[in-house]
Amino acid sequence: MAYGRITQEYQKHNVNGASPVQLIIMLYDGALRFMEQGKHAMAHGDLPRQNQCLQKAQRIIVELMSTLDMERGGEIAKNLFALYGYVLNELVAANVEDQPEPIDRSIKVISELRDGWAQIERQQKAAAPAQPLQTAA
Predict the structure, then answer these.
(1) Residue 15, SS3?
(2) Which one is the CATH code of 18-120: 3.90.650.10, 1.20.120.340, 2.70.98.10, 3.20.20.30?
(3) Angstrom distance (rounded) from CA 56 to CA 67
(4) What sign has the CA pseudo-torsion 7, 9, 12, 17?
(5) Alpha-carbon distances, residue 128 vs 29, 85, 123, 132 (angstroms)
(6) d(CA 57, CA 88)
(7) Is the dihedral of CA 58, 24, 2, 36 positive or negative?
(8) What is the pTM of this model?
(9) Between 132 and 50, whose confidence is greater?
(10) Where are the domains of the chain?
């Protein structure tokens, strides 16, 4: 029981200390994890677990869609919205039709997007000046 509480605190700390780019990457990681779990459940005929995991992945995709700023994001936001819509439809189809191929296509899209955001994160870190260590006075 204490282990679960420690894990929750660790995860909360990671989220609270994360940059916007890191939060997006975390959402991609969660979606990918649930897609893989849903695919695994599907392969083992565990329909309740399949449904649960794929619905969690769908909720993450909807969250990603809702964070897009369509006015300031311009063409990029529109393209991301279309990709997220495609993934959402594929996940629904996979779950309803009990087929892994739409999950595979979704994993491919989200993995490529995640890689792009990870590259942005690396570029931001490389461009950021080194933070001096602060000492207590």
Answers:
(1) helix
(2) 1.20.120.340
(3) 17
(4) negative
(5) 24, 34, 9, 12
(6) 9
(7) positive
(8) 0.81
(9) 50
(10) 18-120
Pull the structure tokens for residue 81.
Answer: 């919205």
DSSP 52-111: HHHHHHHHHHHHHHHT--HHHHHHHHHHHHHHHHHHHHHHHHHHHHT-SHHHHHHHHHHH
Handedness of CA 83, 87, 88, 89 (dihedral sign): positive
**What residue has token string 């933070």?**
131
Angle of helix 70-97 versus helix 101-127 axis, rounded to 10? 150
How confident is the model over 43-84, as pLDDT tens digits? 999 999 999 999 999 999 999 999 999 999 999 999 999 999
Structure token digits, residue 19: 């940059």
